[in-house]
Amino acid sequence: MKLQKLYSYVRQAIDDYSMIDEGDKIAVGMSGGKDSFTLLYALSGLRDFYPKKFELEAITVDLGYQGFDTEPIQRICDELKVDYHVEKTQIADMLGDNGCSLCARLRKGAFGEAAAKLSCNKMAYAHNMDDLVETMMLSLIYEGRFSCFEPVTRYDDNCLTLIRPLIYVPAGRVKGFAAANDLPIVKNPCPYDNDTERTYVRELLKNIEKHAPGTKKRMMTAVHNGLYAGKFCPGK
């Protein structure tokens, strides 16, 4: 995927869901994965020509695992002229056998605190189209309801708004963009990486897509229409 196509996907999502307002200061969550790098490229480029002016701050929540190297993230942030901050935590020591759900809550809280300290009013997560469809399937299979995260979520407790500008970008396009730009992907230090219910659903959708090409795109359309119609239970 070329950069101009990435801009097109992201600008469409931003416009459709009114994600950015004049004067916003947006904290971009940087895990070091291909999605977060792609999001940073998209927003740093749009910053130069989007009609509503906004600022960016890149933030990595360091969970405390040994060997997590943030230098590649710093290097890309420097190239894109985005200030970079690492929020040190001991989340890894707190988890025990509690697994992914607790980690996600603690990581989100640390990210929100870091964003607030930097005077940001918005946070950007790098969830792509496949992530959205997978979340809907997880809810259907394991909770018995149609639910997914929203493109824009407002939190009254900390006056921050969460946006997801990559929701129209298929995961395959993100992978292609990362490869074409030789992005320095940072290995996820989590010992439970690729051993989750989401991994199972991802493989399930991959098989369905082989049987009925275009399934994920049609699911995205259904979610999109449901969000506008208010038929889905929004997730966090």
Task: Describe what this molecule looks like in 3D.
- This protein is of the alpha/beta class and 236 residues long.
- The chain is built from nine helices and eight strands.
- The strands form two sheets. It has a six-stranded mixed β-sheet with strand order 3-2-1-4-7-6. Strands 5-8 form a two-stranded parallel ribbon.
Residues in helices, as a percent range: 40-55%
Distance between the termini: 29 Å
Let me know the number of strands: 8
Q: What structural category arises from helix and sheet content?
A: alpha/beta
What general form does the structure show? globular
Helix tally equals 9
Residue-averaged pLDDT: 87
SSE ordering: HEHEHEHHEHEEEHHHE
The largest sheet is: 6 strands, mixed
Beta-strand content: 15-25%
List the strand order in the largest sheet.
3-2-1-4-7-6
Radius of gyration from CA coordinates: 17 Å
Low-confidence stretches: none
Present the secondary structure layout.
Elements: H1 3-16, E1 24-29, H2 34-46, E2 54-62, H3 71-80, E3 83-88, H4 91-95, H5 99-117, E4 122-124, H6 129-143, E5 147-149, E6 152-155, E7 160-163, H7 171-180, H8 197-211, H9 215-229, E8 233-235
Parallel strand pairs: 1-2, 1-4, 2-3, 4-7, 5-8
Antiparallel strand pairs: 6-7
